[in-house]
Amino acid sequence: MSVFDFTVKKPDGEDFPLSEYKGDVLLIVNTASKCGFTNQFDGLEELHQNYKGQGLRVLGFPSNQFMNQEPLKDEEMEEACKLNFGVTFPLFQKTNVKGKDANPLFKHLREQQKGLFGEDIKWNFTKFLVDREGNVVKRFAPKDKPAQLEEDIKKTL
């Protein structure tokens, strides 16, 4: 199974097949607008701007599973991230990234690339790098700043 086999939801609830990104490199991030790591939005946006011409797509998936750090409704959250952090990469509907009700995409990501403490996602801004064939090639911890991912992104591109 490939990441491109999954369908996710846009903030307005519309289905969006990730197959639309087939042939691109993806950086999938669980985000939150009230998290201590929100300063990473700047670095994620920079990666998006610098490498989108080469096929990198940064995809944000807000989650409210970590100390209620994404309290906004979907469309409010999308607007707040644009206004407050200058985000132009796509943000999708708020979703569960861990537990029995986790989004199937995140279940797949976690199974393919386990973290330091196993499969579970421990906090916001966990990042997954996906190659052009939809394979999950690397997982990065929340504390890993976007600039630290650049060499891995270049190799995957």
Q: Helix and strand layout, with pairings?
A:
Layout: E1 7-9, E2 15-17, E3 25-31, H1 40-51, E4 56-62, H2 74-85, H3 104-112, E5 127-130, E6 136-140, H4 150-156
Parallel strand pairs: 3-4
Antiparallel strand pairs: 1-2, 3-5, 5-6
What does this structure look like?
With 157 residues, the chain is α+β, with helices and mostly antiparallel strands. The chain has a single domain, classed as Glutaredoxin (3-Layer(aba) Sandwich). 25% of the residues lie in helices and 18% in strands. The strands form two sheets. It has a four-stranded mixed β-sheet with strand order 4-3-5-6, with helices on one face. 35% of the residues are buried. The mean pLDDT is 87.
Order of helices and strands: EEEHEHHEEH
For the CA atoms, what is the radius of gyration?
A: 14 Å
The end-to-end span amounts to 21 Å
Shape: globular
Question: Superfamily at the CATH H level?
Answer: Glutaredoxin
Summarize the entry for a quick read.
Keywords: Oxidoreductase, Peroxidase. With 157 residues, this protein is of the alpha+beta class.
Question: Which keywords apply here?
Answer:
single chain; 157 residues; alpha+beta; Glutaredoxin; 4-stranded mixed β-sheet; 6 strands; peroxidase
